[in-house]
Amino acid sequence: MTVHRPHAILLDLDGTLIDTLDEFEHALADMLAGLGLPGPDRTHIAHTIGKGSEHLIRSVLTRALEQDGRASDEAAVQALYAPAMEGYLRAYEAQQHQLARLYPGVREGLQCLHRKGYPMAVVTNKPTRLAEPLLSATGLDAYIAFLYGGDSFARRKPDPLPLRKACERLQVAPAQALMIGDSANDAAAARAAGCPVVLMRYGFNHGQPVEQVPADGYFDSIAEIATQLPPRSA
Ligand SMILES: O=C(O)COP(=O)(O)O
Ligand SMILES: [Mg+2]
């Protein structure tokens, strides 16, 4: 790996640690049914995950209104936005994460990094109220010092602010942290923060091949990254 000896690790959530496509699909289907709109498209969801819930809800509403032959301009979407977001959050929370699946190598990888002494934080665009219970339900919270969600600060990824805040709290300079993500959004945030970044090949990346995104490395498993890193030096 081209990234040597980080002092801390920042982790993306959806598409990096956890395959949440099923739970996104289920919650969105529930939300759309509640509004009397046609169901979501799985591929469209997979390509839209990663930019936060506001973006996802607006994009899914636009598509559903179009499919229903209704006006789908900004005003039409805005008129449904508040009840849609409320229905979505309620449906997402009600699932209690039974549909969430860890990607292979995630648990072992985080265990290994933890054993090697790396402090770790999750920096996701998912709302904190959905992200924190997801981390606990999967047991990954045991390895994570804290989580910042898409609503933790005034700006979210691709803005560097959440990564900078996480580095501050971990007491490392951004250049000494390693961001592990799955998307161009993660890479852009990391680059702007001055933080090395590696990307997982199995994630969502807005539907694009991840190796087209400039990064310091591409991996198939977090366990593989963990094996390659030496024990954290003081
Ligand atoms: O868009 C989301 O809700 C999740 O995005 P993440 O990839 O930053 O976890
Ligand atoms: Mg992601």
UniProtKB/TrEMBL annotation:
In its keyword annotation, does this UniProt entry include Hydrolase?
yes
Annotated binding of Mg(2+), by residue = D12, D14, D182
Q: Name one GO biological process term.
A: DNA repair
Q: What class of enzyme is it?
A: hydrolase
Q: What does this protein do?
A: Specifically catalyzes the dephosphorylation of 2-phosphoglycolate. Is involved in the dissimilation of the intracellular 2-phosphoglycolate formed during the DNA repair of 3'-phosphoglycolate ends, a major class of DNA lesions induced by oxidative stress.
Assembly, in brief, is:
Homotrimer.
Instruction: Please give the family membership noted in the entry.
Output: Belongs to the HAD-like hydrolase superfamily. CbbY/CbbZ/Gph/YieH family.
Protein name, UniProt field: Phosphoglycolate phosphatase
Taxonomic source organism:
Lampropedia cohaerens
Source lineage: Bacteria, Pseudomonadati, Pseudomonadota, Betaproteobacteria, Burkholderiales
